Every structure is written in structure tokens, then in C-alpha cells.
Amino acid sequence: MGPEGVGGRTLHALRYWERRQEAVANNLANVSTPGFKGERVFAELLEGVGPVARGHTDTRAGTLSPTGRPLDVAFEADGFLVVDAPGGDRFIRGGSLRIDEAGTLVTLDGHPLLDERREPVVLPEGNVEIAEDGQVSVNGSRIARLRVEVAGDPGELRREGANLWIPPGSREVVRPEAVRLRQGHLEESNVDPVSAMVEMLEIQRAYGAIQRSVQVGDQVMQTISTELGRVGG
């Protein structure tokens, strides 16, 4: 293999470790973000290219923590609430909700939650109750049922920001009896900060080792060029 081939493989290796570092850094930055799902990056070895970074979302559920706040909701099972975002439907794994000036149930960022009929959930004033099956009631009167869906292939979910997910082409509505929502709870991030810190140190060591090998290679090539210049002179 010539120097150009070696250099190409080295470049791909550096990019792979950079991509892993970005993912772990983002995971650590969202350790305290409710419902956040960590990203794992692995290497796919391509012939003649070397390691290429591929991302994968860790879809494991995080621990549920009680908050006592009526508009905090979390899933005990698979499922996503559906919100109306500027780019279209988006999935969220519960979180802290609020009621806007028009009485619409929205996320903290203002995205309206959709009901079973794909309409925004508009609530009158009063005490809000969100049942396990997604039924929303105010002062004991049923108002709407939250739309809950799952991805046909979770691997096709694409992240948008910290908490939004772009639904895949294949998605299904979850039957009310299969929904497991908990009012007054938040799902913690599923990122283990200790494991993430250890991984970050491993990445930095590996990246540094490759950089040093590149520097040594450059020095060798410089020495060879210098010696050839002397011989030619």
C-alpha cells in the first residue's frame, strides 16, 4: 500500500474518532435533559477505506423520577407523543408540558400536542389529569386522548434537537390499553455519565495516538526528502 492509501485510511480513522467524540460530548451535555436518548457511534470497516462512523440511538428507557407536577408526563413502555412542529409531525418521549394563552396543551418550546384525531388538545381552565392511557380530563370531564405512536423501525428515527424525533415512514398508533403514561413524572436521560466520561478518555487517548503516528510519518517523509535532496545535489 502506498503513502496515499495509508494517509486516506488514517484520515478516515481520525474522522471516526472525532465523530465518536462529538457524540459522547453531546451525550454528556444532555445528562440532565429529561427523556434524552444517548447516541452510540460504531465503526463500519469498508474495504479500501478503513473505519467509517455510523451512529445509533440508544432507545433504552431512562429511570422515571416523580416531580408532582401535573403537566409532567413520562412513558413506562414504548411510545411517543405526537406534536405539531414547523417541519411537520414530531415525536417526543413525554416531558414537561404547559398550557399556552389559547388553552392549548404544548411542549415548553410551544409545539401543540395532538389528540387521536390529529387535532391540537385545547383545555378549559381547571385541574388537569392525564390518565395512564393518555386520556386528558379537566375537573373530571374528559376532553381528549393524547395521540401515542411507535416507530415501525426504531432504527429509522432521526433526532431533531435534544428531545424531538422525526418519525420514520412506518409508524403505528398505539392502542389506548397498551399505553403506559405516568402523570407527575419525568423520564431521566439514559446516559450514564461515568461510562460516558470513561469513553471520552479512551477516545482522547486513541485520537492522540493516531495524531502522533501521523506526526512521526511526516517527520520520516521529511527526513527522506532531505536525504534525497542531498544525494541529488
Query: How would a textbook summarize the main sheet?
Result: 4 strands, antiparallel
What is the rounded Rg? 25 Å
- What strand line-up does the widest sheet have? 8-7-4-16
By DSSP (H or I, 4+ residues per run), the number of helices equals 2
Number of strands: 17
Can you offer a commentary on this structure?
The chain has 2 helices and 17 strands. The chain has 233 residues and is an alpha+beta fold. It has 2 domains: 3-59 and 191-232, no CATH class; 64-187, no CATH class. Strands 8-7-4-16 form a 4-stranded antiparallel β-sheet, with no helix packed on it. It has a 4-stranded antiparallel β-sheet with strand order 6-5-12-15, with no helix packed on it. A 3-stranded antiparallel β-sheet has the order 9-10-11, with no helix packed on it. Helix 1 packs antiparallel against helix 2. The longest helix has 40 residues, at 193-232. The chain starts with a helix and ends with a helix.
